[in-house]
Every structure is written in structure tokens, then in C-alpha cells.
Amino acid sequence: FLFVPAVEVKIEVVIPEKERSKEEMSPNGKASPLIYKVNGTARHYHLEEHPIASNPYHNPKDVVEASVCHVKDLENGQMREVDLGCGKALLIKESGEFHAVGHKCPHYGAPLVKGVLSKGRVRCPWHGACFNIGTGDIEDFPGLDSLPRFQVKIEKDKVYIRASKQALQTQRRTKMMAKCISLSNYNLSSTNVLIIGAGAAGLVCAETLRQEGFSDRIVMCTMDRHLPYDRPKLSKSMDSHPEQIALRPKEFFRSYDIEVLTEMQVAAVDIKNKIAVFKDGFKMEYNKLLIATGNTPKALSCKGKEVENVFNIRTPEDANRVVKLATSKNVVIVGASFLGMEVAAYLAERAHSVSLVELEEVPFKKFFGERVGRAVMKMFESNRVKFYMQTEVSELREQEGKLKEVVLKSGKVLRADVCVVGVGAVPATGFLKQSGINIDSKGFVVVNKMMQTNIPGVFAAGDAVTFPLSLRNNKKVNVPHWQMAHMHGRIAALNMLAHGMEISTVPYLWTAMFGKSIRYAGHGEGFDDVVIQGDLDELKFVAFYTKSDEVVAVASMNYDPIVSKVAEVLAAGRTIRKRDHCWFFLSFRTGDMSWLTGKGS
Question: GO biological process: any one (predicted)?
Fold first, then answer.
């Protein structure tokens, strides 16, 4: 809780009321049983006893208290990173009240003090995750964990923080979750919730169900051999091992009874009888179904496509193998996609040569526009990446079964020991074609704002769906972003529990190349102009993407946190007009926050 008398402020870790109440649901200190019906049978389960007691300071040695500033040191709308001796906290003043939470984003550790504060939440400057300043709860993604919340206290005009040392060191908090008392009563071929796919959408769906008190069986199945992992790192940090990029450790899945069936492929879905049929013949009944299968990389169709050492980067093993084979060798990358460009950047210092083949004239032209694409291309060329544009691969030649040369339609022959293919992907929905679930002409599952398909009890999320984007007047779009997959999974879970929650997030993505990042927010599909502020040659710029008179997306390099600020404006339902982009840019540079406090369009 927070209180602001006439004088001094302290901060301590507390369990949010919503979570603490779960431990106070029955006189014996345990939660009252939850009842769910599966195939007509009622089952009773308890919420797990959370390891944090209702008094978070049961161990006095784990507690630190410090005076961090005078009450007048912070104005409304300001944030300050404060040091408690054994760790730091983020102190915030908004609407006359002080709040304190963890100072690092749990996703990749970004300093939240450099983020954006707006209407009770702080947005990460790097990747756009949002946290409630009163509870620390994560409200938008990416990332899975919330921030620890600390208690703030004011005494004699001084602001104090009282906090758990452990919370200061970990800078993250996993929400309280339900779990089953025992799985022994279950029929192995029956589950309440079946999640097909174990990426971000699937995992967030499972976690959200548990966070909301759902205590029946949850089964996730995946074609992968690993538990859910941070897939964007496959092209950004290619030598990472599976355990290094795991989103949750094995113990997490055991603790919360989230079953994961690895190397299991669903071949068909019988919606009438609510049965998923696996490729090996195994059948599983379900009550609620989430389809979160993502996409499948496109392969080359040229002569010699079956030769050895030609890769799509789909798994950690793929990425690791490419790095090993590419070291001091010749690499050809086909496709200047996000994956292709990130792989080229990662291998540039390791390989003898890196050549990139692309059908378009400029990398990222359709996404970032020609001017930004040329600036990025110039950066790559200065790092020894050679481009072969406006051409395609006509043949892959081998020697003793292994790749030796890549022949282009232009006639150019490139030496190649390894080839990485990044020419796009298609939704992994082929197994649904005869199911009765609505699939569009491109293979995407069509859902509404609650991530529901046309079939009751069947939801879909992630890269394989099209959904109404409120930002673009509910136009049906496909947004294959890591952040969006997280939010899809959460919305699907809430609506499995009949919360009636609609999606209304702002798309947010990033790409990392040669130690530099491009942030992007909005949905710029169909933009008709790009307005640049800053210096493209210096790679310090902001690009506003407009359609008619409206800014529909923004990208930046070395101008944090402007993309997060634009995301907050768009999330508030306000419009940035094309004529106002200069004013917005200047207001960002001068620290004028009026766009976030209600002024403007």
C-alpha cells in the first residue's frame, strides 16, 4: 500500500492485495479449493502455497531500509534510480504519490529510469514491456516476470525505502500461480486445456491460466525437442545453448503442473469430438484448445536445394551448427529479412566472407523504407558484408555432397561453405485444413479480438493468426512479433476463463546488428511516406511512417526512448498527425510530456 502524509518516504517489498488475498481465502491459511468440470466430472484443486509469506520480512537479516531523497526532490511525473547499498530501486512520483519498484526490466535488464512513465505504468525503453507502478505487475510484453514492489514511507520530509535484499538483487517477481494437488487422477489421453505450440504465445497462455487460479490439467505440445526458449536469440546470439535461452527452467514446469510434450506433432484436429490426433497416432481429448504453432520457414526451390550445409535457422542446434561451420569459412545468406540480416551481422566477424543475396533493391525497403534501408546497408558494407541485390539463387553446387558454390541468376558464382536461407515463412497450419477452423487464403487462422476462432472453445495466437488491430481501425493483420505473441497468449487465456478481454496493444519490435538496435512501434503496412529526423549517416535518427495524414509507425536508432514514447501515445488512443511530427520530435528532445498527459490530437 502507499500513503503520503505531510513528510518522509520508505520502500519495502509487499505482496499485492490481489495476491495476498489468495493466501487468506480460508481460515487454515490455504486457499479454498477451485472447482472445474472436465468431461462432466468436477475436480477440486488448491492454489499452491506461495513461498513468500504474507509478511515479506519474516527474516530481518534480509531487510534493508534507507533514506533516498527529500520529498521535494521529485516532481510529479519524475523517476529516479536510488541506491539502497545492496541494490537499487526505481522511485516514482505520480499524482502526488510515491511508488517504488525494481529498477531493471526483467526481460533483458534495461534501466527503467530511462523509460517512459505514463498514467500509472512505466514502459521499458528497449523493447516496450510495461509495468504497473503500484503493483509491479507486467501489463505489456515481452518478458514473463513482473517487477518487485517495494514499500514507500515518508518521515520528516525524507523518502525511505524498505526492501528485501533478495528482491533488490533479483529485480524480478513471478506472479503467484495455482497448481494441481495431484495429476494421478487424470486420464493421460484427456486434458482440460491443450496448447499446440510451445513458443511465447503458448507459454504465456499457460502461465496466465495458472496466475488466474486455473487448477486443472494443462498440456503443451511442441515439435521441438526443447522446453520453450527465447527464439529471437537464435539469430542475434547464435552460439547460445538451449539451457542459456530457456524461458523457464524445468523445475518451473514441474512446480506449476504445466506438462510439455516435446517432439510431438499434431496431424489433425477433430473439432466435433474435441480430439487432437498426433502424427504417431496418439489421440488427446481437450476442453479448450489454443493453436500457437507459429510459422514454417520457406525453403529454396532451386536446383541443388538438398545439398548439405544449407540451413533454415529454426532451432538452437541449427544456429550452433551454422556458427561452427561458418568460422573462417565462406557464408552465403539468401534473403535480407530480419533473420538474414541478423545472421549476417553475427557471422561477419567470424566468417572469412559473408555474402547476402536479395531480390529487392534495398534491405528492409518494405518495412523501414528505402532511406533507412540504405543506411543499414551501408553499415553492413562497412563491416565486410557483400550484397548481391535484385537477383536470386538459381543453383546450389556441391562437392562430395557438401555445398561448394551458390550460382545466382545474374550469372555470378559465389564460393560458399555454408548457406543460410531467410526468405520468409508460411503459417504452420496445414494440419487444420480439413478441421472446419476458419483459415484465410494465406493459411493464417482468423480470430477476433478475444483470440477466438469461429469454433467455440478453440483459440489461436502468435505468428499463425490474423486479428483485428485496433490501432488500424480493426483491420485484420498478421503481426509476427515476439511481443505480440506474448499478448496473444495472455488474451487467449483470459478468454478461456470467460473474462471477455479484448486485445488493444501496440505492436513493438526490435532488431540488433553490430551492437546497434532499431526499435519499432506501430503498424506501418501500406505507409506512403517516411519523415526522417536526425542523421541517417550517423545512424542516429527517428523515422515516422505516415499513411495519408497520420503517423502509423515509428522507428529509431540511438534515440531511446522515443519509440516507447510514441507507443504510449498510440496506446492511449491518440493520433500523431504528419504535420505534428517535428513538434513531437522537439518535445521529446526537450522533455515535454504533454503528448502523454492528454494534450495533442
Answer: execution phase of apoptosis
